[in-house]
Each structure stands twice: as structure tokens, then as C-alpha cells.
Design brief:
By secondary structure, the chain is an alpha/beta fold. It folds into 2 domains: 3-242, Purple Acid Phosphatase, chain A, domain 2 (4-Layer Sandwich), CATH 3.60.21; 247-374, no CATH class. It is built from 8 helices and 17 strands. The chain has helices at 21-44, 64-75, 97-100, 173-179, 261-274, 324-328, 333-345, 350-367; strands at residues 3-7, 49-52, 81-84, 107-109, 116-120, 125-129, 153-159, 183-187, 196-198, 201-205, 221-230, 233-242, 247-254, 281-288, 290-291, 311-316, 319-320. The strands form 4 sheets. A 6-stranded mixed β-sheet has the order 4-3-2-1-11-12, with no helix packed on it. Strands 5-6-7-8-10-9 form a 6-stranded mixed β-sheet. It has a 3-stranded parallel β-sheet with strand order 13-14-16, covered by helices on one side.
Length: 375
């Protein structure tokens, strides 16, 4: 029973632009380490085949250190076959890394937009696939599928978009159902999916190896497939395995009743601990609830280290705990400020309400003679 690892969207040498220079370099190194973890995992699992369904690189450029590391990792596991289907970020062009670099003999790279096949009779597997040859691929590579050996396990490595009209190889579930493949190993969508079935064909997005932004939250990794055929009938089992070093997450914390920075820190520390997040997490933390305008909090002074995280962003969406009736009838400038902001405070648009709440909180603080620069 061949053991197959399905991975995609490694995006080696991605820039990590939201982080400071030091942390961005850490994350770049961790992307390389994620690929090393993939190879180590393949060795530990005694995998026969690793499928990389596109965007192994983040662009057509990669550093010498990254490419040398990649080649050495491939060479370190000569008994395992690595099949690459170049995607929209790393298309196979005359000047691409796939043409410039000399890869070990156990690496197989699709080079044409039309469907082709790498056959591995020693493990009873045929892998079909295609390559992006530019950043756009609007054709359907499954229009013409060559005859397949029903006695073999037939896999498609596909960097594709199942979302309808797309410039990134638009495929449909109906295309997969009609294809006749045993498994379609998809890349391009960074959020992994469960393994599904259409027309007798299993298919899934493995997701990326490492999240790169808050658009890619959650645990990341690979899909392990164990497939065999008896009399043309497929037996299959699939499992997901975590390989990411760190992961991005979003969390909301209600800070109603907090009356000091110390209490705020403890409230947030408890929220982070309850979510099970630690030093492997990059967190975007949204503060909600109502706070008295008499209380001056400084959420921006709370650091990732204080909460036991790798990286932290705080969004203060709390609102002032005010007596609207009292302010509405206040004849002073405080009441005038409130009445001016009232339409926005009651807006159906959340962003408008938040802007008005912040303006009211800061305005009242300024009227009380407080230094609002530190807010």
C-alpha cells in the first residue's frame, strides 16, 4: 500500500511584510524549516511519494540559500519521489528556478500546461499533472484526459481554483467527478479542506505548510493518503498532520469592568490561556465590551511577551459606558459633542459606530483635561 503525502503552497522566501525585520527573518527561516519538517516527516512515515501541488516558491525568485537548502533536502531522501506541479506564484517559465536549478533524480516537475503523467510502476502509481507557464492559466486541463490504467492508482496534482471563474486554473467539482482519477491533490487555496468525494474521486486542498498572515489562520500541515487497489477497486484512508511551526489566530476578549492596565493585562492573559494559545501563535486580539470614560487604559502597551505569544496585534473595539440620557440633556459642550456624534453612534455600520465611540471617549477625556496622546 503506497503511502503518499500531499502538500502545497509552501511559498518559500515569502516577505512577511507585517512583521518587523527580525521577526520576518525568523518566519522566512521557519518556512525553510517547514519544508525540512516535511522531508523529515516523509522519512519517518516511510513515504513513497510526496506531491507538491504548486507555489513551492513565493515568486520566480529565491535566494541561493533557499534553493540550495531545497535541493539538499530532496537529495537527502533518494528513495522517495517528489512530484511538483508549478503554480501561479512559481510558474515554469524559461527563466524560472525550475529551469535554472539542477534537481536530484527523485524530483519530477511538470513542464507543460497540457496534462501529462509520471509513471511509477514499482509502487503502482501514476501521477498526472500540469504546470502554470505564466501567472495566469484560464484553460481547463481536464478537457482531454488520456486513457488511464485502471490497475494503477491514478492521482492528479492540480494547482487550481474550484471557486468558478478564475485566472488560476478554474476547475469545478463536476470536472473532478468526471475525471476518473482516484485522488485529486489540490493546491492554491491556503485553508485546507476535508477529503471529499465526487463521482468516485477523492479530492482535497492540503492547505499551506505555514500561515503567512491573518488571512491564513489555524493549524497548517499536510494530508497523508494510503491507497491501494484490488481488482480495480480503490481502498483509501486519509489523515491530516500538523507540520507548521507557528500559526495565526484571531480572538475577541470582553474587557467590560476592567479599571486599570494591570487588570486589563490579566484579563487578556486569561483569554489567551483559555484559547490554548502560546509562543507558537501570532494573534490579532480584538477588545470588546464597555468601559467607563473615567478609566484610562493603554492596550498598546501590552506586548506579545507579556501574554506569552510570538506576535500580537490589539484592536480596541470597546465602547464608552455612558448614560446616553444624561449626555443628551447636558447643556454643556459635553452634551453638544454627544449630540453631534449621536447619528454615528446609532449607525448600522459597525465601523462608523466604532469611530464615533472613539471620538466621544477621546473628546470627553480632553474636556476633562486629560492628555489624550497616550490613548
Amino acid at each position: 500500500m503506497p503511502k503518499i503525502i500531499h502538500a502545497a503552497d509552501v511559498h518559500l522566501d515569502a516577505p512577511f511584510s507585517i512583521l518587523d525585520i527580525q521577526k520576518a527573518q525568523v518566519r522566512k527561516n521557519e518556512l525553510r524549516a517547514a519544508f525540512s519538517s516535511l522531508v523529515l516527516f516523509a522519512r519517518t512515515e516511510k513515504a513513497d511519494l510526496v506531491i507538491l501541488s504548486g507555489d513551492l516558491f513565493d515568486s520566480g525568485f529565491a535566494t541561493k540559500e533557499t534553493t540550495a537548502h531545497l535541493v539538499s533536502q530532496f537529495a537527502s531522501l533518494p528513495d522517495c519521489r517528489f512530484v511538483i506541479a508549478p503554480g501561479n506564484h512559481d510558474p515554469l517559465t524559461p527563466r524560472s528556478l525550475y529551469k535554472k536549478e539542477v534537481f536530484p533524480k527523485n524530483v519530477y516537475i511538470f513542464e507543460e500546461e497540457t496534462l501529462s503523467c509520471f509513471s511509477f510502476p514499482e509502487i503502482g502509481v501514476d501521477v498526472y499533472g500540469y504546470a502554470f507557464t505564466s501567472e495566469r492559466y484560464t484553460d481547463n486541463p481536464l478537457k482531454n484526459i488520456p486513457p488511464m490504467s485502471r490497475g494503477r492508482i491514478n492521482i492528479l496534482a492540480a494547482h487550481a481554483d474550484l471557486g468558478g471563474n478564475s485566472e488560476n486554473c478554474p476547475l469545478s467539482v463536476q470536472d473532478i467527478a468526471r475525471s476518473g482519477f482516484d485522488y485529486v491533490a489540490l493546491g492554491h487555496i491556503h485553508k485546507g479542506t476535508d477529503v471529499k468525494v465526487a463521482g468516485g474521486t477523492y479530492y482535497a486542498y492540503s492547505g499551506c505548510l505555514e500561515g503567512r498572515s491573518f488571512d491564513e489562520c489555524g493549524i497548517k500541515g499536510v494530508i497523508v493518503a494510503e491507497l491501494t487497489k484490488h481488482g480495480g477497486q480503490l481502498e483509501a484512508s486519509f489523515s491530516k498532520r500538523r507540520l507548521c511551526k507557528r500559526h495565526y489566530e484571531k480572538l475577541s476578549a470582553d474587557i467590560t469592568g476592567v479599571d486599570s492596565d494591570e487588570v486589563l493585562t490579566e484579563r487578556l492573559r486569561s483569554a489567551v490561556a483559555a484559547a490554548g494559545y502560546g509562543a507558537d501563535v501570532l494573534l490579532r486580539l480584538r477588545l470588546t465590551g464597555k468601559i467607563s470614560p473615567d478609566i484610562k487604559l493603554h492596550p498598546s502597551r501590552i506586548t506579545a511577551q507579556m501574554l506569552g505569544l510570538f506576535y500580537l496585534e490589539i484592536e480596541d473595539a470597546s465602547s464608552p459606558l455612558l448614560s446616553y440620557d444624561e449626555l443628551k440633556n447636558d447643556i454643556s459642550i459635553r452634551g453638544a459633542l454627544f449630540r453631534e456624534l449621536l447619528p454615528m453612534l446609532e449607525s448600522e455600520n459597525e465601523e462608523e459606530r466604532q469611530i464615533a465611540a472613539d471620538a466621544l471617549r477621546l473628546g470627553l477625556a480632553a474636556l476633562d483635561g486629560e492628555d489624550v496622546v497616550d490613548f
